[in-house]
Amino acid sequence: MPVTLIDADGHPVPETGRALPDEATLRRALASLITARRLNDQAYALVRQGRLAVYPSSHGQEACQVVAAQVLADGDWLFPTYRDTVAVVERGVDPVEALTLLKGDWHCGWDPYEHRVAPHATPLATQLPHAVGVAHAARLRGEPTVVMALCGDGGTSEGDFHEALNFAAVLRAPVVFLIQNNEYAISVPLARQTAAPSLAHKGVGYGIPGERVDGNDAAALLSVLGEAVERARAGGGPQLVEAHTYRMQAHTNADDATRYRADADVEAWVARDPIARLSAYLRVDETAYREQAERVAEHVRDGLNRDVEPDPAQLFAHVYATETPQLREQAAQLTDELDRSLDDEGALR
Amino acid sequence: MTHEKLSMAQALNRALRDAMTDDPSVVVFGEDVGPLGGVFRVTDGLTAQFGEDRCFDTPLAESGIVGVAVGMAMNGLRPVVEMQFDAFAYPAFEQIVSHVAKMRNRTRGRVALPMVIRIPYAGGIGGVEHHCDSSEAYYAHTPGLHVVTPSTPTDAYALLRESIASPDPVVFLEPKKLYWSKEEVELGTRPPAIGRAVVRREGTDATLIAYGPSVPIALEAAEVADREGRSLQVVDLRSIVPFDDETVCAAVRSTGRAVVVAEAAGFASVSSEIVARVTERCFHSLAAPIRRVTGFDIPYPPPKYEHLHLPGVDRVLDAVDDLQWEDS
Ligand SMILES: Cc1ncc(C[n+]2csc(CCOP(=O)(O)OP(=O)(O)O)c2C)c(N)n1
Ligand SMILES: [Mg+2]
Known about the structure:
The complex is a heterodimer of chains A (349) and B (328).
Chain A: H1 23-48, H2 62-70, E1 77-79, H3 85-90, H4 95-98, H5 100-103, H6 112-115, H7 127-140, E2 147-152, H8 159-171, E3 175-181, E4 184-185, E5 188-189, H9 190-193, E6 210-214, H10 218-233, E7 239-244, H11 263-270, H12 274-282, H13 287-305, H14 314-317, H15 325-348
Parallel strand pairs in A: 1-2, 2-3, 3-7, 6-7
Antiparallel strand pairs in A: 4-5
Chain B: E1 2-7, H1 8-22, E2 26-30, H2 46-50, E3 55-57, H3 62-74, E4 78-82, H4 93-100, H5 103-106, E5 116-121, H6 136-140, E6 146-148, H7 153-165, E7 170-175, E8 182-187, E9 198-201, E10 206-210, H8 215-227, E11 232-236, E12 239-241, H9 245-255, E13 258-265, H10 270-282, E14 291-295, H11 306-309, H12 313-321
Helix pairs in contact in B: 1-7, 3-4, 8-12, 9-10
Bound molecules: thiamine diphosphate and magnesium ion.
Magnesium ion (MG) binds at residues 152-154, 182, 184-185 of chain A.
């Protein structure tokens, strides 16, 4: 059974053997959850307005996103996937920078070293060996760094997932692998992805402890992920955490989920919403937290509604440390083309 | 012969459907190809019509998909697998290069792998990174693979039928930006297209050589050039491997000038191979060195930059202007 500390109705679960996080910690999580939901929905709306190329929303998965970042210390690292923009923002990255890839302005909008957040990974599971490498290097350098590596349920089928787990185990690297099991990989349900009793079981063959947690219960996530991070920091090695959640929206705006799942399946998860249950438990009025959420939404709207003129030199500037002679030639060709087309426009007028 | 107005995606769907009907050993699998019908809907309706044994979703692992297809092809079936996007085929690279391409040669012809690896490729759709790669050179450089790429719905149908029937493995590259282009498609058997280039437009002054997503650009450039008084011939390779030296060289000899148009980075590319082959064979027929118009030698850029990167009509016409029309 996945660890649940606060049930779907907002009641504490008795006899879990785990202490509930203190009220201040839970309030901090709730504030972020409400902002996270607003960010997800704002980004989704901006796709419809043509301001973002695409948005894989984590609507419904905000507890995983927020807590994955909140349990980390400043010197730790986060390795996100394309769906984890909210976790990236919770880590401190400006939301407009976090959305740069999805807006189409550049591949990664933030400086990975500033907040210790790797670029969004799109090729599934390929970021996981990198996470192990960063963690192992930290150990070799004597740094107390822990790495939080995010992955989807579908991503666990890729070879890189397995190689990363094995390396982490053999090297005793301080990595926490968090699988957000949202039951779908685009159209493919979990039952088609694995015959294992759970995704947490995948740690067994590698000698890594696996834990299941209710991915819509921020309190349980704080407890389980917090413990995994501290264990890794203390030299206890890697851990695998499977968070059970649900993808409430289509894979992205470009997907039509009605082709492969019933609306009723989605409805069933509305009652398990991570925000409703935490505010019910805390008996707080969510409106108190709305102001911050609206500020972030406005910042995102402002940032994404601004058109950034593409700078052609950027195409060539970052391929190598030093531009090759061939790239210099090609950059000059493009400049010449653009100058001539400007001249043509002038001539037409 | 029947005709139907189809998009390229629909023509490919039709080819799969007809091949599965004609040959019970044809099986289709990959990521999201079942109930969803593939992210581009190329496999739409196949599971419903033929059942889950014939068209099924796999776990999310490209190396596994291609590796399992190798085994199935070894044991009497004709797998047609889908890689979801160009860059997501890379986890299968080892299987493709070390096994798919080499099995026939390793076993001195005893084990053939009649399988097709379908890959949506190239850009022009405003896709974010890893969704727009032109990966043809990796495959074309690997002996043992056939590599084909249609530019019209009619060729898409014919080439896919032929690829499925082929005794050798075929890497079938589908230009994403052309999935929605429509035309009347002739269904039924047609003359072989694998290994055969085709002249898409007659012209006398210079030859544009293109394939896949670049063919419509070449045709548009020829149209514009025509208005400016220059007659450009357009050759569509269709098949990168085997390469049709005969048709391409005959075309270039007829005009004496040529420009190769391709989206992929130009360095160590299919376009460089074309220039080398034609120059080796037609040197004395050439009035000018063959020019190439390709993507820059950079990682495929983000959506807001792709118009700066992709070869367009102006860049093609600039290259044509450069073909030493007068001694200077
Ligand atoms: C190597 C690779 N293959 C295929 C894809 C295409 N693709 C993008 S997301 C996705 C589904 C991933 O599902 P999951 O890991 O469960 O993450 P979720 O989208 O549910 O967050 C697929 C197949 C990819 N990005 N990378
Ligand atoms: Mg998933």
